[in-house]
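Two entries, shown back to back:
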Amino acid sequence: MRKLSTILTVALTAGTLLSACSDTGKESSGVSKANPDTQNRQQTESKAVPPVPPPSAQTPAKEETKSPEEPKKEADPKPEPKPDPAPAQQQTVASQTYQPPKQSGAPTAADKKAVSWYYMKKKKGEVPGFPAEIKQLKPDQKSVWVGTGKKVYMTIDLGGELLDYKTLLKALKDNEVTATFFVTGYNLKNNPDYMKLLLADGHTIGNHTITHKDFTTLTDEQVKQEITDWEKLYRNITGKEPLKYFRFPYGTYSMHLLSLLSDMGYTSYFWSTAMKDWEPRKNGADDAYNDIIGNLHDGNIILMHQASKENIEAMDRILKQIKKEGYEFGTLDELQK
């Protein structure tokens, strides 16, 4: 307002001066020549001050009673996109918040203690006694040593020579018995045609390790290698997936090894009848026959070795007598855990 008042005063003064000059003007044209200083001052002021509006526009209009302006709404600032946390940061957070499942501690000396499987023969028809260690077995330590009911399970370990395998297979076929052969890696590799013949006749093949070493003398990694190498060899020879049947070499094991094999999906099969058939028999095939028939019992899992000629010679008689005494032959898949 102060600037506006000043401008009006200057304008009125200039108008008065011009009027006076025109009344006393000396030149007939009626146009007076302004003093150069005044002219310069006017030009300067006209440049510095905006032109004054005509009187009608100057009517002091009510101070603009600007209805209270609503404060201008500034545009909402666009939210700045938050950068995704770098993968490394995510991993760091995860590592701080994720709690992996607790793993059982390292096996103790007691867990790794070597144990040899055995049974205590009783009267014919009675289930034998077994090692005290079986009371320590946990549900996840998958192992079988005897079945139930009036059944017998024939298992044959193949860690030595084949000998007269044709006679052996004929006795099994003639008596309609299917057996499980626990085969070592070297026999698997050296006798591929025999393996295929066993499968063609309906028998099953179990893992008896690659080298037939005492597993209690090996590291866990060596044990796993023995198992997986055998599986790979079996697939290459037969074109089939191996069954998860396992038998410890020499029947020597530990609680830790049972857990390890179970974790690999295997059930470990022991036995409730066996004999020293890796040695020559004093009475030949009769010893083999008497050892088996003299220990018949419900759920009997019989272990025989193919490398015994006495076993092969006695096989037909043994199978016929087992059936004669009212037993049926079962297969290990019935006992699989």
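entry 2 starts here
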Amino acid sequence: MFFRRLLTPGLTLISCTAWAGPATLDLGIGKQPSLAAGPTGLHLVYESLDGNNDIYYRGSLEGSVWSQPVNLSHSPGISSEPTLCLEADGSVDVVWSDTSSGNDHPDIYFARSADAGKTWTEPLDISQTPRLSRSPRVAAAPDGSLAVIWTDTSGGRSAPDLFGSFSQNHGKSWSKPELLSAQLGTSSQAGLAFSSDGRLHFNWCTAATRPRTAYRCGQPQGWSPIRQLAAGSSCSQPCLASSGSKVYLSWVGQPDRQSSPNIYLWSGARAENVSRTPGTSSDPSLAVSAQRPVLAWIDTTAGAFHPDVWLAEGRRVQDLSHSPGISRKPSLTAGLGKLWVVWEELDRGTCHLKLMSREARSR
């Protein structure tokens, strides 16, 4: 079946038959997936649900056959919130939050594979702050240097800040954690990416007076002033992606309390409402394909009790998952000539990881 429905003038909803080809692939039990595609294939990290509370890795050359899960954290604590990035040579860098240092002050841990996921370094505690370190994000520069940014309550439990640490030797050692958000009030987790000139770009949401989207770029010891891009009654779940020198930012925004939360995209000039659906939009994931931003998110338009994964490319908006379960936490990436999205699907009390892909479109 193929259908289309006009949501707002110029915005067309297209059924998931646009993603014709391989059916949705079930990657097994897990949650909180993070996916990246690069010269060494597809790389996935996620939280286990087997009672060990560990972070696992799986890899695939082309998306249909996947390696067996590898336990990366194998720690006595609770490991959560994994995310990963790829270096230019295909090396895989993974970070997560872990309570091995203490239940009341989790730290950020790092592991790296230089051989496409075959072997891994031992987990390294890179934050070591006195209070809660959560929601890490990692990015690799063109020269191989690494940046990790996370939320931290060392400055006050009620108002977390953004902290960052940096490595110039592929993660063997890290700089002392540095305050990046300049204490503008409560800071959310960050989105981050390097541009081709080696500058790090990151965005976050802050609730100083009114909720705002904040943006900053630069390098350690040389950051730009903080730029505030948008304000409203709510701002959350920021993400960021880059292609060459071009940077794209996204977040969940609500201009006023009467409107539903929607997904916003900023590409240098202004913020645009991308989702514009009658449902509630959340959990955005941003990638760049053919020099064009692509967004995946969770949306309740098809039903409040079974939200689906949606995707936007330009003016095209698609409901991808169309599932009877509860779709959550999509992770979108572009590579190997395709767009890929993985998400967690809760159905009948079990949470599985689901994968879909399709050929990338030219501009």
